[in-house]
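Chapter summary example.
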Amino acid sequence: MTKNSLLILAALFLATAAAAQPEFYSDAFLGLPEFRALPVRLPTADGDSAQIEVHIKIVYDDLQFVKKDTEYNASYEVDVNLRKPDGSLTASGHLERGVTVASYVETNSRVRGDQTSFLFTLLPGKFNLRIDLLDKETRKSRVLEKELEFRKKDWKKPLQLGDIVIIDSTGSAHMSYGLIQGKPIQAAYKLYSQSAENIRLSYQLRDSDDEISESGSIPLSDHGSLYADTLSLPTDSLNDSHYQLILIAQTDENSVMRSYSFDLLLQNLPSYIHNLDMAILQLKYVASDDEYHVLTKAHSSKKEQLFREFWKRKDPTPATPANEKMEEYYRRVNYANEQFKGYRGGWSSDMGHVYIVYGSPTDIERHPFDIDTKPYEIWYYYDINRKFIFQDREGFSQYRLVSSFWDDF
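The structure predicted for these 409 residues follows.
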């Protein structure tokens, strides 16, 4: 590759790498079902139209199960609509899903869930994506909305590359927050080329310092104008925590790039854990003083072992691979970090502390504008007959706990 070609690719990377990544997003809200969605843009064989593939996942814990005989059943509905900026409907889809699990423990899992997808073919343009999910047992629903754009200058080109989709062990789109170290990365791609001559596809794996850890060319078999395959990359030798996978498609006249950023996680730990040292610090609400001292002061070579032993002692189902209690704990930590941000980490705030220990409140009473008092909130936990009052004493949305509490997680 010439020096000029390298400069062009570097400029293209800076301009498009961040925007080209498929966006995984979820909708978290106290007391209502949470689901995750991944919209993926793909080329088609004719080059004029494009596709949007919408992957949706809801974990079992966010569905209401009802026991029938020896099984537990849940059901939900999903509606997906794509509208143009003027509000006119371009495409829609509807699915009704039933879920059956064998044990009560599975109904509370935040690892396992039900996943489905929708595929729409359309002309390039701007669209509003709206996803409605309804739990049929509770009749509670959530809505996700996202603006999507297929720019004509990108999706009318003689060379088009779809968004990267990471495939999990079940063959479905990966919809968690990280990838497990030691397991190969399976990256699915689709490439359209108007001409079958001089097409080149390559990859780069860049670490958190933007250094290239791995790179290489990807052979393309003859598929007419559309090339679809999966790139497999081992992760055993990778030792950084954050990476970016970049695919680069080129002909003599055109080039296009897509990227996918991910965190590399330790095996058999919740995807919410991105850093072991931080995960150990976050044990302060569940570990005894002695346990906390041993874990935080342990040598780096022993920390992971001690951390796993700590959670093994608390595993409610030691015969199964998943540790539901550890998964739920760090889900709460992650939620607290997202929802209760401030000058301290959300997990260490007073609201974060209560949420991590007790979970979602049954009800929340908000008083942001009462006369002669600072803004305050009351969280009610009817099942344990408790309430917690938080007040924003300084006026910077830093709610502090007014009432004390003691309990075991």
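To summarize the output: Helices lie at 3-16, 104-107, 152-155, 276-281, 289-297, 300-312, 324-339, 350-358.
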